[in-house]
């Protein structure tokens, strides 16, 4: 199956905007393919406001998030590969989602049933309560 991360990002983005809040994304600026203004990067991370009033041409694709924005009055086309998105959240209350590194590769296949250890089963015990 395809990774669920882009679908979750789109859903949370819509939920945040529908609730009149401001969607922000936390980005790993050291990730390959990230195009952001270097002056705004701190500790290899950058927080970006992706609200409809802050950006132009927002595209939440399956491989990347892209838009045009202004940074200090200077226009810039921003490119954020899905692997670089660490979280999406509402600025007003912090509600949203943080993504693990494992999320980028799609879901892990389910493991088989847990092995039953011999002698580990017990008889159920009930106590009479009066």
Write the layout of secondary structure elements.
Layout: H1 5-18, E1 23-28, E2 45-49, E3 56-60, E4 64-71, E5 74-81, E6 85-90, E7 96-98
Antiparallel strand pairs: 1-2, 1-6, 3-4, 4-5, 6-7
The spatial strand order of the largest sheet comes to 2-1-6-7
Uncertain runs are none
User: What is the CATH superfamily classification?
Assistant: SspB-like
Rg of Cα set: 22 Å
Which percent bin holds the helix content?
10-25%
Termini gap? 55 Å
Number of DSSP-assigned strands: 7
| Count of separate DSSP helical elements | 1
CATH topology type: SH3 type barrels
Q: Can you put this structure into words, describing what you see?
A:
This protein has about 130 residues and is mainly β. The protein has one domain: SspB-like (SH3 type barrels, Roll), CATH 2.30.30.220. Helix content is about 10%, strand content about 30%. The chain contains one helix and seven strands. The chain has a four-stranded antiparallel β-sheet. It has a three-stranded antiparallel β-sheet with strand order 3-4-5. A hairpin with a 3-residue loop joins strand 3 and strand 4. The longest helix is centred in the N-terminal third of the chain and has 14 residues. The model has no long low-confidence stretch (mean pLDDT about 90).
Describe, in short, the structure shown.
This protein has 130 residues and is mainly beta. The chain has one helix at 5-18, and strands at 23-28, 45-49, 56-60, 64-71, 74-81, 85-90, 96-98.
List keywords for this structure.
130 residues, mainly beta, SH3 type barrels, four-stranded antiparallel β-sheet, three-stranded antiparallel β-sheet, 1 helix, elongated
